[in-house]
């Protein structure tokens, strides 16, 4: 059995996004001095669904990923590439995508919230149904 915590989950997702070599990665909103494009990973949450002897054997994780770029189309394109990669690990995008323009950085933001179930008995990610 393996217990997955929020920090390790976030590091896993960050590594998968980094492996795509699409841009920088951060855990908080960028400022005007950042190098763009940049992926923002935020709002990470774990919800323990099932325990055995007080050990979490089944959890749901969620994370928001946004790409900040010079154009909306570039943000959409980078987000789609990220989406394709995360689907390989059974991550599902839920809800309406984030589609905004940030006045401070003068960058477009596009992204969404992902959810995935984690099975601690077999150390694997499973689809959210």
Describe this structure in words.
The chain has 129 residues and is α+β, with helices and mostly antiparallel strands. The chain has one domain (6-29, 36-64, 80-126): STM4215-like. 23% of the residues lie in helices and 47% in strands. It contains two helices and six strands; from the N terminus they run H-E-E-E-H-E-E-E. It has helices at residues 6-19, 72-87, and strands at 24-26, 38-52, 55-69, 92-102, 107-119, 124-126. Strands 1, 2, 3, 4, 5 and 6 form a six-stranded mixed β-sheet that branches. The longest helix is centred in the middle third of the chain and has 16 residues, at 72-87. The chain starts with 5 loop residues before the first helix and ends with a strand. The model has no long low-confidence stretch (mean pLDDT 96).
Question: What's the SSE blueprint?
Answer:
Layout: H1 6-19, E1 24-26, E2 38-52, E3 55-69, H2 72-87, E4 92-102, E5 107-119, E6 124-126
Parallel strand pairs: 1-2
Antiparallel strand pairs: 2-3, 3-5, 4-5, 5-6
């Amino acid at each position: 059995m393996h217990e997955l915590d929020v920090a390790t989950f976030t590091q896993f997702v960050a590594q998968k996004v980094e492996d795509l070599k699409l841009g920088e990665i951060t855990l908080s909103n960028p400022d005007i001095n950042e190098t763009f494009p940049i992926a923002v990973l935020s709002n990470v949450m774990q919800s323990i669904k099932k325990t055995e002897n007080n050990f979490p054997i089944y959890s749901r994780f969620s994370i928001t990923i946004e790409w900040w770029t010079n154009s909306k189309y570039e943000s959409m394109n980078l987000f789609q590439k990220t989406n394709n990669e995360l689907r390989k690990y059974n991550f599902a995008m839920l809800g309406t995508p984030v589609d905004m323009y940030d006045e401070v950085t003068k960058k477009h933001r596009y992204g969404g919230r992902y959810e995935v179930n984690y099975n601690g008995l077999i150390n694997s990610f499973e689809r959210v149904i």
